[in-house]
Amino acid sequence: MNKSVRIGFLLLALLLLASIIPNLGIEINTFGFYWNFFRLVVVLSAFIMLILFRGEIRVGERKGFLFWIAFFGIWLLYGGILLVASPYSDKSRGVQELFSVFCALLVFYCFSRFDLSGQEMEGLLRVVFFLLTGLILFGFYEILTANHLSTSMFADELNLQAAKLDPHTAAGIMYNINDFSALLTILCPVTIGRFRIHLRRIYLDPGWLLVLGVIMINRINDANICNAALIAGILTYFLVTMHGDRRKLGKVLMGLVVLLAVLVVVYISMGQTSGGLVARWQDQMDYMNAGGGSLHARILIYRDALLAGFRTGFLGVGPGGFPVYCEQTLTESSFVNPHSFLLEIFSEYGLLIFLLFVILIGRLICSMFRLYQNAGDEQIRNYGLVGLIMLVVYLIASFAPSSFILNAYQWGLLALLVLISEQGKKWMAEEKERTGYAYV
User: Fold this and answer.
1) DSSP state of 56
2) Structure pTM?
3) How far apart are the C-alpha atoms of 316 and 344, rounded to whole Å?
4) Closest Cα to residue 76, out of 417, 418, 405?
5) How far is CA 425 from CA 2, 69, 193, 377, 433, in A?
């Protein structure tokens, strides 16, 4: 194995670790700016990459990465202009958001420089798999013991009393329980095909146990949007795998019936409130009709986020500017963040950045579907399936956290998916050369 490839695998594995667990007990204050584990790893990795490649920053060989890096460059430039020009821009939070975007650019640069073998790609996915397993186990430990990390909202006594949260919930390595549920949910698709047990002609995939574990944690955390994202991901899995094969229809329907039965049992037997799913939905409807409840609050905040974009002529209120906008315009919603990544981008950075992001995500979804559909190798097809479902889950689960731009894990995961897409094209080209058959 080439030495630079080995170093590349280790660097990318470290970047994934830092993206998913960004703090890891490290916090360095430099003139009021805090460096956590993720920020340190990203900057140092980019520096090491420049040394390894003698200052070369070429990414043109991989158009997928080139488009994303150009996008982040445009985002930084436009965000910098808004930071100075917008009357709503929050300078302190705005600088943090733009630095998060800069870190995203560095992450994509690092992922763009290495060609990995299939074994190394599988190694990266297993890094994510084992991190997910550990986070799920820690989540259940929190639920059973009510012991939490000092970085979570449970260490903030004033906020905890105001929110009236049950301590037997899971915030994990995040501050908020919704943020932790979103993290687990978005990581879930990596369980597909990681390990299989062959038992008398039946393949059992233990990864589904992890999915069920995440569904249970989401239920206890009252993170229903995250479970909706998981259900959408599971439906996508069934629909894609049965595409073009009607013989699988019976198995798909049976799987959906079993899934529905499990979800009904989980939702009736677990959670902070009783009464089951139908009763909980009726409660939300009653609250909304009376002008209250989380559903009503979300409708108001989504409306305010859209209005923020419209009222600025689709230019955006500026980095970190949404809370300032809400305060100055006396919005009706009780939240101060959009609670949607897409609306967060639209309200703060305007229509241009929003459309570019949506286009890139759409291209990546199409690329993953083609990879699954056209690759001749089963492992490569599996990577395309993982990427496709992760993107579907990502788009829905990103409505759960209050704010998403400052989260680190999304950048590492998106860069991993782009790497899968680009490597998949290369592997299929090599397969075409070897077999003489055009799969693409």
Assistant:
1) -
2) 0.86
3) 10
4) 405
5) 21, 19, 21, 12, 12
